Amino acid sequence: MRTRPLGETGQESTVMTFGAIALNWLEQEGADQMVELVLDRGINHFDVAPTYGDAELKLAPKLGEYREEIFLGCKTQERDYDGAREKLEASLDRLEVDHIDLYQVHGLEYESELDEITREGGALAAFRDAKDEGLVDHIGLTSHGNPQLILDAIDRIDDLETLMFPMNPVVAGKEGPDHDYAAVLERASEEGIGTLGIKAFAKGPWPEDLSEDERPYANWYEPVDTPEETRERFDFALSQGLSSVINAGDPKLVAMALDAAERFEGEMDDPAQRSLIERLRHAESPVPEQLHH
Amino acid sequence: MVPTTVSTALADRPVAGTVCLEAGAGTGNTTAGLLAAGADRVYALTDDPEHARLVADRFADAGDRLATVEADLRECPLADDSVELITAHALCNLLEPVALEAVAAELTRVAAPGAHLLVDDYAPPPEDAAVGRLFAVENAAASLATGRPALTFYPSSVLRAAFSAHGWTVDRELTLLDPVPWTASHIEAHAEAVRSAAASLSPTSREALLAELEGVLDDIEPESVGEMYGLAMRY
Ligand SMILES: C[S@@+](CC[C@H](N)C(=O)[O-])C[C@H]1O[C@@H](n2cnc3c(N)ncnc32)[C@H](O)[C@@H]1O
Fold first, then answer.
1. CA distance to partner chain A, nearest, from residue B18 (Å)
2. Is A176 on the interface with B (CB under 8 A)?
3. Which residues cross the membrane (chain A) (predicted)?
4. Residue B132, SS3?
5. What pTM was computed for the model?
6. How many domains is chain B partitioned into structurally?
7. Which of B1, B5, B27 sits opposite A293 (nearest CB)?
8. Is B7 in the pocket of ligand 1 (CB under 6 A)?
9. Which CATH number belongs to the domain containing residue B123 in this structure?
10. Of A31, A71, B88, B153, which is least surrounded by CB within 10 A?
C-alpha cells in the first residue's frame, strides 16, 4: 500500500489509517484476526480512543506482538491538565504500551475549548510533559467542528503536528467558511502538519425513521457500502491532499476500505472530482427540476 | 449555491465590475456565480416566464445589480456592444442548429469589443449511454409537439466553429465534468419534459410516447457518462 509523509513527524503513513473503533464490535478472536488482516494488507498507522468502547483493550494483545510495525494514534477528550494526564496513563495501561506515537486532542468543537487546552494547566501542557517523558512522540488534534476553529488551533498551537477532520465530496461541495476544509488543508500543508481524513465514506445522516437497532452499520452516519462508491470516496478524499484516510467504523466495511486503499493509483483529476461533487449534490436535492449541471 | 461547474468556468474570467449577460438563465446558477464574483450588473435572460420569476425571486436582494429579462435570444432586446461578459451555461444543447446560428449572431451583436464569452455544454453522450435513449424519446416528443428537437448535443468543435464564424477567438477549453453524473433527479426531470410535450399530442401519439418512455425508465439507472466542456472566447 502506498504511503505519504504525515506532515513533518517523520512518519510515512499508509494512505489508509486503521480506525480501531472497528474492534469494539468484535469478540477478542475476531479483533485479533482483524488486526492481522489490516497488518497483512500493509497498514502501518492505527488510530484509537478510550471512548471507543473496548477497542483499546481488544487492540492490546496484537499491539504487543507488532508494536514496532504500528504508528499508534490515541486521543483524549479531557481539556485540562490532570484529566488529560489521567486519561493518557489509562490508555497506556489499557493498550499495554509504554508510549503512544501520536496523542491527539479529541473532538475539539468550541473556541472556549481551545482556550482551555492552551492555557496553563490545560491539556496541552500535560501532552508536552508526557512528550518530555517519552510517553508521547507527537501532538495532534481532531475536530468535526468548524474549519475556522481548526485554523485558529493551527495559529495557537505551535507544536501541533497532525490534524484529523472530515473530508468528503458532500462537504467539499458546500460553500462558505463553515465548510472550508480546503483552507485547512492548505494551511496544514504550509505548516508541515499531517492531515488525517474522517467521514470520507459518509453518505449522510441515518434516515430519521430508522431506529438505532435497525441500522445495518455501527456508524453514527450512514456509510457508502459498495466497493465502487468506497473506492470513489477513498480516491476523492486522498485527492484533496490528505496524508491518510480512516476507514468507516463498522468492522464489516473495513475490508472494502482496505481494497480501495490498496488499489489507489493516483489522484482523481478535477473533472472527475467535480463529477462526484455534483452527483451527490443532485442526489440530495429533493425536487427533480434540474435538467443540467 | 454555485455549482462547481459554474465556479470553475468563471474562475479564470474577469467578472468583477463588468456588465454581464447570462444567456439562458434557467434557475440562475450562473447568475449566482456572476453576482458572487462581483459583476456590476447581470442581465439574466430566459424565454421561460417561470424561470424569469424564479431568478427574480432568488436574487431579490441583488437590487439593480440584476435585471431579469424575459425574451428570446434569437431577438435579444439588449443594445449593440452593451455587455462585457456573456455566459451560455448549458444553453446551446437547447438550441437546434438554426436557432444556434441566430443566437450566436445576437450574442455577437450585443457583445462589446473585447468581450468575454463562456460556452459550457455537453459533448454528445457515448453511443451506449442509457440516457441517450431517454434524450431520443424527449426529442421525438418535442419534434411532434413543436416541430423542433428538445436537445442537440454539440461537440465543442462545432460550437467553436459557430462562434468563430462571428469573429470570436477561443481562449481556452477545459473539461468541467468527466464523467457527467446523470442522477435520478435529472432522469426524472427529463421524463417530465417528455410527459409535458406528450400532453399536447393526439391520444395515439401520446400513448405511444408514454409507453416508450416507460420502457426506457424501466431499464435506466442513474449513470455517469460523457463530458461537459467549457469554452472561453474573446471578441
Ligand atoms: C438549462 S437552463 C440554463 C442553466 C443556467 N444557465 C444555469 O447556469 O443554471 C436553459 C435556459 O435557457 C433558456 N432558453 C432556451 N432557449 C432559449 C432562447 N431561444 N431564448 C432565451 N432563453 C432560452 C431556457 O428557458 C432556460 O431558462
1. 23
2. no
3. none
4. helix
5. 0.91
6. 1
7. B5
8. no
9. 3.40.50.150
10. B153
Inter-chain contacts counted by CB atoms under 8 A, chains A and B: 78
Supply the CATH number for residue A54's domain. Answer: 3.20.20.100
pLDDT in tens, B128-172: 999 999 999 999 999 999 999 999 999 999 999 999 999 999 999
Contacts of B183 in chain A (CB under 8 A): 279, 282-283
What is the domain extent for residue A57? 3-282
Query: Which pLDDT tens digit goes with each residue over A198-251?
Result: 999 999 889 889 898 899 998 888 999 999 999 999 999 999 999 999 999 999
B165 CB neighbour count, 10 Å cutoff = 12
Ligand 1 atom closest to B73 (CA): 20
> CA-to-CA distance for B115 and B84, rounded, in angstroms?
4
Calpha distance A142→A154 (Å, rounded): 12
Indicate the number of domains in chain A.
Answer: 1
- Residue B90 in contact with ligand 1 by CB distance below 6 A: yes
Q: Which residues of B touch A289 (CB under 8 A)?
A: 27, 185, 189
Assign B1 a pLDDT band (cuts: 50, 70, 90): confident
Consecutive 10-residue runs of chain A (293 residues): their mean pLDDT? 98 98 98 98 98 97 98 98 98 98 97 97 98 98 95 98 96 89 97 98 90 90 95 97 97 98 95 96 71 87
For an interface test with A, the pick among B1, B4, B93 (most A C-beta atoms closer than 10 Å) comes out as B4
| B47 Cβ inside 6 Å of ligand 1 | yes
Q: How far is the CA of B120 from the centre of ligand 1 (A)?
A: 12
Q: What is the 3-class SS of chain A, one letter each residue?
A: CCEEECCCCCCEEECEEEEHHHHHHCCHHHHHHHHHHHHHCCCCEEECCCCCCCHHHHHHHHHHHHHHHCEEEEEECCCEHHHHHHHHHHHHHHHCCCCEEEEEECCCCCHHHHHHHHCCCEHHHHHHHHHHCCCEEEEEEECCCCHHHHHHHHHHCCCCCEEEEECCHHHHCCCCHHHCHHHHHHHHHHHCCEEEEECCCEEECCCCCCCHHHCCCCCCCEECCCHHHHHHHHHHHHHCCCCEEECCCCHHHHHHHHHHHHHCCCCCCHHHHHHHHHHHHHHHCCCCCCCCC
Please indicate whether, in this complex, the C-beta atoms of A279 and B227 are within 8 angstroms of each other.
Answer: no
Interchain pair B185, A278: CB under 8 A:
no
Domain of B220? 4-234
**What ipTM score was computed for the predicted complex, to two decimals?**
0.90
CB B26 less than 6 A from any atom of ligand 1: yes
